[in-house]
């Protein structure tokens, strides 16, 4: 007897609920079809469903996402880094308390006992005909960040060495929910035998029809719900073998929206926004933003960051603020609206020579006009770099570029051989925008505070 099994999944939704009604509508249509044919199906999520850029995720600290997943009928979910390191330790510990699905993440643990009751390394799910599928979860090992909030994350490869044999013994088919990224997925496929399907995420890659590496089927559905994933497996009960496996990324753009789900999203959003109505301050005059100019609001934020971290210098990009603040009462909803990024304050130690290079690069048009995506940034463009703690003299060159002529701190020139502390957004500790910051030996991350918490303090402590 041959049994056809169906897996549908989402990955890296990042709280982009504009596509959620189409996704769940498609799931519901497929579910009805499978029920009529008495076929087995499962709904899986591969992490980063939560993203605090959205009011639903911010107002309910991820629990609104869990409610929507419950309503959709999910069976198993993995944790992404946005669930793992953008929430406080307590909010992460209780995130899935009301989940009506299993949560698997084999390389994540709470630093103390007891462990959250919902956290499992893997789950064995069973079809109507008794076929057992072992579902393992793995998440990106951002060790430094997890340690800051009291959690432990292990090497995914070391964990696979420990759990994979057990899962293979307990199941007929092995599926890996991998929030590790495409490179690690490919390495796992080459290194480990017996993983039948790897559902990938984290790097937002997309495989329209799956990719095969050494017998493993790799599948991925991009980001933001622009696609959903579909895996079809055929298990031969007589030979006890997986006879066929296929994977597809289904575009959601033209799928029909489910109006009931649209209403569910609207209702949860209203509930979440109610939690964000806490007053922060009252403005007697508006505060404006400008991505390529200095503004009062941006200067206040940068100065507060320097104070918050007790740094010698602070640097932030003006593109971090997305909207103006008008006259009247300002609530946390307003702060979230203009600064939605899940970015943490960070302080690094650099030599004077490195500080000068950072300042020089920060004034180049090439950097300020970068349309940055990812690394926690949820805006459009980096924008002008704003500094606090230093006086920077610049000249405009004939080439249209801004050239740094002189930099002083407390009236004294920067000493190239002395070490200074620079406060900035953790975004700049990743990637290659500022190599001096990215490769700094000493970094301090402030967690679970986000930059909008610094902005809130700046608005509270500064009178008009």
Explain this structure.
- The chain has 464 residues and is of the alpha/beta class.
- The protein contains 15 helices and 25 strands.
- Strand 12 (211-213) and strand 13 form a beta hairpin.
- Helix 1 packs across helix 9 (259-274) and helix 10 crosses helix 15 (451-461).
- The model has no long low-confidence stretch (mean pLDDT 95).
- Helix content is 31%, strand content 28%.
- The longest helix has 18 residues, at 20-37.
- The radius of gyration is 24 Å and the shape is elongated.
- A 7-stranded mixed sheet has the order 6-4-3-2-1-14-15, with helices on one face. A 6-stranded mixed sheet has the order 7-8-10-11-13-12, covered by helices on one side. The chain has a 5-stranded mixed sheet with strand order 20-17-24-19-25.
- It has helices at residues 20-37, 55-59, 63-72, 81-85, 89-94, 143-148, 156-170, 182-191, 259-274, 296-309, 332-338, 352-362, 365-368, 435-438, 451-461; strands at 2-10, 40-45, 76-77, 102-104, 108-110, 119-120, 122-126, 132-139, 151-153, 173-179, 197-200, 211-213, 216-220, 227-236, 241-251, 279-283, 313-317, 328-331, 345-351, 385-388, 391-396, 402-409, 412-413, 419-425, 443-445.
- The chain has 2 domains: 2-273, 4-Layer Sandwich (Purple Acid Phosphatase, chain A, domain 2); 278-461, Alpha-Beta Complex (5'-nucleotidase,  domain 2).
Comma- or semicolon-separated keywords:
single chain; 464 residues; alpha/beta; Purple Acid Phosphatase, chain A, domain 2; 5'-nucleotidase,  domain 2; 2 domains; seven-stranded mixed sheet; six-stranded mixed sheet; 15 helices; 25 strands; 31% helix
């Amino acid at each position: 007897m041959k049994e056809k099994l169906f897996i549908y999944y989402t990955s890296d939704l990042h709280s982009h609920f504009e596509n959620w009604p189409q996704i769940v509508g498609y799931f519901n249509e497929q579910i009805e079809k499978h029920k009529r044919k008495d076929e087995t199906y499962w709904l899986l999520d591969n992490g980063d469903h939560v993203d605090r850029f959205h009011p639903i995720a911010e107002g309910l600290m991820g629990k609104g996402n869990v409610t929507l997943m419950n309503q959709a009928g999910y069976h198993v979910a993995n944790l992404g880094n946005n669930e793992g390191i953008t929430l406080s330790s307590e909010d992460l510990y209780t995130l899935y308390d009301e989940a009506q699905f299993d949560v698997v993440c084999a390389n994540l643990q709470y630093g103390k006992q007891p462990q959250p009751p919902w956290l499992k390394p893997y789950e064995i799910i069973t079809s109507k005909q008794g076929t057992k599928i072992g579902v393992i979860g793995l998440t990106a090992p951002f060790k430094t960040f997890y340690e800051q909030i009291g959690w432990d994350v292990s090497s995914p490869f070391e964990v696979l060495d420990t759990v994979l044999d057990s899962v293979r013994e307990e199941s007929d088919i092995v599926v890996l929910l991998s929030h590790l990224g495409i490179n690690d997925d490919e390495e796992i496929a080459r290194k480990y035998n017996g993983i039948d399907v790897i559902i990938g995420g984290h790097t937002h890659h997309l495989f329209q029809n799956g990719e095969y590496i050494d017998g493993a089927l790799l599948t991925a559905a991009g980001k933001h719900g622009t696609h959903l994933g579909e895996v079809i497996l055929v298990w031969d009960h007589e030979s006890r073998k997986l006879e066929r496996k296929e994977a597809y990324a289904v575009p959601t753009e033209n799928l029909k929206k489910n109006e009931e789900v649209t209403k569910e999203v609207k209702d949860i959003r209203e509930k979440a926004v109610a939690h964000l109505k806490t007053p922060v301050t009252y403005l007697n005059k508006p505060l404006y933003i400008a991505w390529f100019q200095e503004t009062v609001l941006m200067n206040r934020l940068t100065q507060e960051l320097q104070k918050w971290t007790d740094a010698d210098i602070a640097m932030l990009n003006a593109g971090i603020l997305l909207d103006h603040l008008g006259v009247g009462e300002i609530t946390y909803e307003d702060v979230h609206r203009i600064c939605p990024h899940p970015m943490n304050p960070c302080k690094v130690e650099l030599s004077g020579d490195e500080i000068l290079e950072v300042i020089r690069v920060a004034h180049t048009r090439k950097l300020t006009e970068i349309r940055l995506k990812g690394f926690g940034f949820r805006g459009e463009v980096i924008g002008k770099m704003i500094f606090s703690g230093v006086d920077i003299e610049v000249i405009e060159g004939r080439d249209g570029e801004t050239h740094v002529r002189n930099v002083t701190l407390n009236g004294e020139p920067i000493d190239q051989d002395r070490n200074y502390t620079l406060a900035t957004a953790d975004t700049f500790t990743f990637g290659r925008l500022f190599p001096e910051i990215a490769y700094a030996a000493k970094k301090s991350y402030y967690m679970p505070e986000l930059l909008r918490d610094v902005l809130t303090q700046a608005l509270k402590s500064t009178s008009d």
